[in-house]
Amino acid sequence: MDILRSLRTVSEASGPGVVDWERAAAAAKAGTDPGSLALTDADRAGYATDVRDARARLREVAGIEFDVPNAIEVQNRHHWIDASVDTFRNVMAPIEAAATGRDEGSTGVTDGIGDTADGIVEPTGGPVDLPTGDLTRGFGRDLSRIANTGSMAFTLGFLARNVLGQYDPLLLADEPDADHGLYFVHPNIVAVADSLNVEFPRFRRWIAFHEVTHAAEFGAAPWLPEYLESRVERGIEGLTGDGGLDGGGLTAGGLPVDALDTEPFAELQAAMTAVEGYAEVLMDRAFDGEYADLRRKLDERRGGGGPIQRLARRLLGLGLKRRQYEQGAAFFREVADARGIEAAGAVWERPENLPTRAELDDPAAWLVRVDP
What we know:
Blueprint (H helix, E strand, L loop, with lengths): L2 H9 L9 H10 L10 H22 L8 E5 L1 H24 L13 E3 L2 E3 L10 H29 L4 E4 L12 E5 H10 L4 H21 L3 H17 L22 H24 L5 H12 L3 H9 L2 H22 L1 H4 L12 H4 L2 H8 L2
Parallel strand pairs: 1-5
Antiparallel strand pairs: 2-3, 4-5
Helix pairs in contact: 1-2, 1-5, 2-4, 2-5, 3-7, 3-9, 4-8, 6-7, 7-9, 8-9, 9-12
C-alpha cells in the first residue's frame, strides 16, 4: 500500500471526461493492500461446496428455480477493483457526457480546433493562443477532474477493503447477455471472520448463502435487471436533461446529492430495499447452521468501526444501504411470518408486485394488494 503513489496518480488525472477511470483504479489499488489469495485445496473446495449447497437449499426453502453464474471468482481486493470499475464507469457515462457536452463514446476532439473537457485542443500539436477565460475554464475543469478521480479512487478503495462477496447482474454492462458474476473477496472474508471471532469456514458459508440468494432473486425475476436499469437511466436523464451539470461537484458515490429525491431513484431505492431485505430473510431461513451470532455481529459491524470508517460510510451513502437492509428485512419477516417464505417470493413474479415505499412500512397493505 503506497498512499503517496496513490495521491500522485490522482494528481496526474487527464483526458476528456470528468473522471480519469484508469488513474482512479490505479490510485485505488496503490492505496489498498491486495491481501493474500493463497488458497488451500480445502479453501477452493469449500467455496465450490458452499455455493452448490446454497443453491440447493435456497431452491428448496424459497420454492423458486434459478441457476448460479458460471463465473464464480475468488478474488483479492485489487481483483475486485478491476472487476467493478467498469460498473461505475457505465453508471457515470451519461453524467459525464452531459457534464462535458459530449455524446457518449465521443473522443472529445472535434474537427480542427474545438472545445473539449480539457479546454482547447489542437490536433496538429501547434501552439494556440487562448483567451484568459478559456484558460481559467480549462484549469477549473482540470481541478474538477482531479477531485472527481480522487473521489472515485477513494470509493473503490474503501469498498474493496470492505466488500465480502458480490453478485453482479451486469447492470448497464456493454455486454448484458454475458454471464453474471459471483465474486468472493477472500482476504476480506478471512479478516472479518477473525475480527468477529467466528470460524472462517462457517462465516464463508454464510456469506455464500447471502450472495447466492441475490442470484436467486435475479433468476426468479428475469425482468429485474431491465427494471433497475430503466430507473437508473431515467433518473440520470432527469438530472442531466436541463444542462445543469458543469463537470464538477460529483459526490463520492458519483451522483448529485439530491438524486434520490427524483421519482425514478425513489423507485430504484424501493426495489433495492426489496432486493436486500428479501436476501436477509431468506438466507437466514435457508442457512443450514447456527447463524444468530453471525447476524448480530455482522449487524454491529455495519454500524461500527472507527471515526474515519463511520465518516466514509456517511460520505458513500452506506448508511442508506444499512437502512435498506433493516427496512427490507423487517418487511419480509412480517410477510413471511404471515403467509410463509414462499409467499414472500411473489414479489419477484412481476414488477407490479414490488412493494411501494409506503408499503415497505406497511407490509399488511402489500399483502392485501398482492394477496400472495
